[in-house]
Fold each of these.
Amino acid sequence: MSQRRRFWVSVVVCGFLAGYPAFPAFAGEGGHVQETVKHAKEGIGHAKEAIQHLEEAVKSSNDPHAKEALDHAKESLKHAEESLAHAEQAHQHKPKGKTK
């Protein structure tokens, strides 16, 4: 894989991963939260697979930018997993009283 292609794959994966932490914040109530959590889990699974491919590409590269992109992708995945955990906790915690 050429350096240019590795670079663009890294950019796309990092952009893809960076978007996932925001999804639970816009979910809403009820079924929308469940659906958002489901999609976030699917996205995290895809991100993990993408990181595996990036790791394989970095092994054959001496480009420090590719390694830095991989580190950023891993950090973004970590934040996405934390965000998903918070969304799941928020969904399980139901308000007791009627809110206005």
Amino acid sequence: MFKISTMERFCAFCFYITLLCITASTWGCGSSETPLDAKTREAIDSLSTAEIRLLRVELDSQCQMARVTQMPQLVDSIKQVRLREIQEQLKTVPR
């Protein structure tokens, strides 16, 4: 079964929040009654696409860095818990 780590969820959350902010800021410009012409729509699309691409690279690098720095700590803590569980189980085994 595929499990998503907390860091991956956080990275996805940051990406979607950024995308939402970009979308909201483009919708918030100008009057809603005035339709945008083709050049304006194309400019908005180009800017948002470029910004999303940059943010994706930045978020990916942050996620990779967090994975490198936090993964050993997480694995160690899981291993320690499991070793304690094994020790407790061994205490109950008759000799």
Amino acid sequence: MFNEKTFEAVQDIFQEVGKHLNRVGFYVSLEELQGRYDDALQKIILDEEREKNCHYISGEFKVSAIDEKNYQCSYALYFEDSDGSYHVLEAQTKPLDLDCLTEDFRGELKKGVMSFEIAEPKRNVSV
């Protein structure tokens, strides 16, 4: 299932930050990109669990070069529903400008798709 609404927020935040960083001469590293998306994805997971009464199973975050000037981020989140069935929440960004990434990060993307497991979010536990 594609959830454009939740991923648009993630994409909009990163595009604005990326534009600003590039204008002032800063570049985004792989670690910074992962950190920005990790917080947003953790919120998406917790919201999905609460709204749909399901449990997060696993997920994958991917970064890939589209062409020589652009890259794209995507995710797929897997959930088990209360009735034992499963569903997937997935989305991808519009093309993003490679120029806002560090040289090392751009070099890694030229090698192929970078894929990362999305950890289960920390949940507040009442005692």
Amino acid sequence: MSRHRRGDKKPKRASLLEPSQPPLFSWRGKRLMWGGILLAVLGFWVLSWCDPLGRNWASWVSPILILGGYFLIALGLIWPYLFPSF
């Protein structure tokens, strides 16, 4: 049933030398996304030090870190489409 006859051709495998699709994320895009993830995690860690009334430094810094991390993740996702030559 699954035997191949001499005349039957096997399906071709993709060769390593043939051009394939470009990677989904560029090298810089991956670095931007990892930096954004780390920045967002740092922002949530700083958020644990916040004063309930929002009167200390952590209350001001943590939203900036979290939003900056999210921005870097989004920038890393769209980087290949904005700058395809990089």
